[in-house]
Amino acid sequence: MILLPPLIAATLHPMNRIVAFWTKKTLFTRLFLYFLVVLTVPLALFASYYALLGGRNQEQHLMEQAKQNALYDAQQVGIILESYRHKAYQISTNELVISILKDDRIETNSQTSRDLYQLLFSTMRGDTYLASAHLVSNSGKVRVSTHAFPDVFDLRYHGNDYDMNSIISQNPNVSPTASIISIRGHRQAESNRMVMASILRRVYDKEGENLGYLVVEVFAEALSSVLSTTDVLADILLIDNRVFIASSLKYTDRSGPFTKFPVLTSLKSVGRATIQRSGSSVVAIEAVPGTDLLLAAVVSSVPYQESFDRLLLIFIGTMAVGSILAMILSLLFSRSISRPIKDLADRMSEVEKGNLQTHEVTASIFEFTQLEHSFNVMVKQIISLLELTKEEEKKLHEAERKALESQMNPHFLFNTLNTIKALAKLHDEQEIYTIAVKLGKLLRSTIDNHESECTLEQSMSLIDSYLTIQKLRFGEKLHVQTYLDPNCKDVKTPKLIIQPLVENAIIHGLEPKAGVWDLQVKVVKLDNRIFISVQDNGVGLKKGTLPDNLEELANSSHVGVYNVYRRLYLKYKEKMHISIVGAIGEGTIVKVSFPAECNEQRSSL
Amino acid sequence: MSYTVVFIEDEEIVREEIVSSIRWEMLDLKLLGTAADGLEGETLIKQTEPDIVITDIRLPGQDGLAMLSRCPVNHAVILTGHTDFNYMKQAIRLGVFDYLLKPVDDEELEETLSMLVKKIQEEDKDVAHLLSKTSTKGTLIELPAKVNNHVIDATITYISQNYCESSGLQEAAAYLSLSESHLSRLFKEVTGLNFLQYLNAYRVNKSVELMRDPKKTISEIAISCGFPTPGYFAKIFKRFTEKTPSQFRDEMGSQF
After folding, report:
1. Can you give the pTM of this predicted structure?
2. With contact defined as beta carbons under 8 Å apart, do A269 and A285 qualify?
3. CATH dotted code for A479-595
4. Residue B26 near chain A (CB below 8 Å)
5. What is the ipTM of this complex?
6. A66-300 carries CATH number 3.10.180.10
7. Beta partners for A187?
8. Are A472 and A431 in contact (CB under 8 A)?
C-alpha cells in the first residue's frame, strides 16, 4: 500500500511520455507509423491465417496424399503379385513339372529338361529381369531355375523346417495348395537385383503327395516400376505384419524387422488401412489385395515444415525490407512536405518583419504550389496596397499643401475689413462702413462657417447682408422685399440654399435688364412644410435652359442651382421639391419646399 | 453709478474708432483707458480694476485670454477676427460674456454692452438684497447655508472647504460631475445668487473673521481667503460693504 503511489507514479510517467509522443509527433514519425500499419496488417493477417489454418490443411492434404498413394500402390503391387502367383500356379500344376518332380531326377540337356526350361521361360514370358522361378524337389535333387538356383532353396543342405523360420515356409492355416507370398526372402539375387517378394507353391501329384516346391521370386524392379511415380513419398514399404518384417520399395536394399524403420516403430499400431502421424512423417497403410501383406506410404512433412519456415523467413524479410522502405519513403515524403512549409514559414516571418520581396518558389507538391501562389498573390496585394496607400498619402499631402497655399488667411481678411470699417467710421463714410460690416458677415457665414447646417433666420440674415451690399451697388433701382415667417426661424436647413438662388436672380435675371428691378424672397411655413420662393421681374428664363431632372446638372456650368438641389436632396431625399418657372421678359420664380424639421436648440455663440 | 471699462486692441485705427464711436455715457459706462498689447493691458486692468474688459485675442506680448486669466476680471467681451474653436472654448471657461467677430458692427457691440450692463446691475441688486438682510449669525453677509437641494448643498460644502484655493465654478462643476452651465443655472435658481457672488460673499465673510487678528495684513488676509490679488479683494470687499478692507478694519477696531 505504501509502495503504491511511487509505483503509480513510475507507471504514469512513461505513460505521459507515450501520450506526449502520440499527441506531438513529427510528420516523419506519423507517416512512418502509418506505413508500418499498412505493411503489417495484411502480412500479419496472412501469416496468422497460414499459421492457424494452413498447417492443419497441410496435414490433411499430406494424409490424403499418403492414403491415395498407398491405395494406388497397394493395388498395383497386388496386381503384379497376383500375375506372378498365376504364373506360379500354371507352372506348379503343369504335368511336366509334376512328372519331373515325381521322378526326382532330371537329365541335363535331355528332352525333358529342354521342355521344362521351355515351359518355365514361356510362362515367365521372358521378363526374367523382373522375376525368377525356381523349382526344387523335396529331396533337393531336382533344382531348376530360370536364373542361378539360389542356395537358400537348396533343400539338400537346409532341409525344410517351419520352426526354424526356413525360407520356404507354409502357413498351416491356409489351404495346402494355396501359394504363399512372403517378403522374408529379401536378398540380393544375381545381377544385383533385389528380391522383394517370394511366391511359394507346393507341387503335388494327383494323389496329393507333396513332391517339391515352386518359388517365384519378384524383383524390386517389377514392383517399383508400377508404383506411383510421385516424389512426394519419402518411402514406400511393403510390410509383413505377421513376422514384423518390412522392406522398402523405394530404397530396395533396405529391409528387415520394424526396428530398422523408425517410421514404423513410432506408429501406434500397424494395422490395416490406417493413416497416422509418425514423427515428422505421415504414414498411410493399405492392405495389398490378395495377400497378407501391407503397403505403407510414407510422406515426410519436413519439406512442408521447411517451406513454412521459409515463409516465415520471407515474412520477416518482407517486414524488414518494408520497414526500411517505409522509413525512407516517409523521410522523403515528410521532407517534401516540411521543406516547403518551412520555406513558407520563413518567408511569412520575413514578411512579418516587413521584407515584402516576393520570390517565386515552386514546390514539388501541387497543393504547396497553390499555397505558395496564394501567398505570393497576398504579398503582392499587400505591396500594391502599400503603394496605393503611399500614393494616396502623397496625394493627400499634395492636396493639403495646395489647400494651405490657396487658403488666404481669413483672419487677415476679416481684420482688414475691420480696419476698413474703422477707417470708414472715422472718416464718416457710412456706406463703406456698411459694406465692410455686411461683407464681413457674408464671408463669415460662407467661408468661415464649418457647420453644414444653419437656421432659416441665419440664412435670411445672410440674404440681408448680401442684398444690403447689392443695394449699395445698384442704388435705387433694386427693390427688395424679404419675408421670414417667424414660425420657422429656428428651422435648421442645409446652409446656402437661398443665397445662390438670390444671387442667380440678380446676376442672370436682373442685371441684363434695364429699368426697375424687383426681387422678392419669401420663406413661409404651411402644413409643417417650408416654402421658399425667390421671384424676380428680370429677363426671364429661356425654356429648356435647365433640364427637368436637376440631377443632370452635375457636370454643367449651373453650379449654383445644382448645389442647392444636391444639398436639399441629401437631407430630404424625395421629400424635397424644387421648381424653376420663367417666361421671357416676365421674370423667373424659383420655388423650393421641404419638410420643416424644427430644431429648438440654438447655439449660443 | 456707471461701470468702468478698459479696451485692449493692438490696431490704433480700430482702437480710435471704437473709442469714438461707442456711446459710452449713454450705455452708463466709463472708459477708463485703452492698451495696445497684452502686457500693457494686464497692467492697466490691475491698476484700474474695471468692471468690464473689452479685448482682442491676438495681442503682442501675451494673448487676450492669457491676460484675462491673470487678472481679476469680472466681465469680459472678446472682439476678434478668429473663430478658432480652442479660443472659443477657453473664452467660455473664463466666463466671457460674449464673443464678437470682426468686422464688428458698432450697433452690435453697443447692444452687447448694454445687455452686459443690465446683467451687472442685476447682480448688484442681488448683492444689495443680500446686504439689506441683517445677519443673525454674526457674519457680515447672510448666506443661505442649507437649501434642501443636495446638489447645491454639496456645492456650498465644496465652497466652504475650498474657498481659500483659487477654485471657481469650473472646479466645483468638475468635482460634482456636472456641466458648468447647468450648475451655474441651478445655483442661481436655488440660492438667488450666482456662484461667483456666493463664493465672493463667503470669502468676504471669512476675511472679516480674519481681520479680528491685528497681526494679519490685508494682503495676507486676501491671499488666505482665496482672492488672487489684494486689489481684487479690496474691490470685491468694497462692493459688499461699500468700504475698503482697511477702512472696515479701522471702524471695526474702534467698536471694540
Report:
1. 0.49
2. no
3. 3.30.565.10
4. no
5. 0.72
6. no
7. A195
8. yes
